[in-house]
Predict the 3D structure of the following.
Amino acid sequence: MHCPFCRHTDSRVIDSRTADDGLSIRRRRQCPECGRRFTTTETASLTVIKRSGVVEPFSREKVMSGVRKACQGRPVTEADLAVLAQQVEESVRSSGIAQFDANEIGLAILPHLRKLDEVAYLRFASVYQAFESLADFDEAIAELREHPEVQPNPASIIPTPSQE
């Protein structure tokens, strides 16, 4: 870590703490050259591979934006969307994989969205599970009726390193 004041190439960690969200670490550092102190925040990065092959950082805002369209006209608040995006990120991070296809992120959203709003779930699932006919909707609705209380299980959606 370079010192932001004198650009010395080394620094000493004085204190480390977990940040508020639990997904990052706040470190107090001191430069051995100039003696000044500074703070860094470290997070493990998640990247998403889009269909076009472009790689970009995971974004909760993009999750919220995609789900917002499916929730249009439904009793879902912005706070609900923010919680859902956080749950999706936690699910993805818990898999231990740092890079995902965009489609895998969409599939990781489904169990959380189903718990939030079933109609929005059907709208979103019709895209990410590539519904092609009314029969696909019928099957999804039958599944909802058969198992009304499903708990999100990201392990069944996101491949573990041994499944890749």
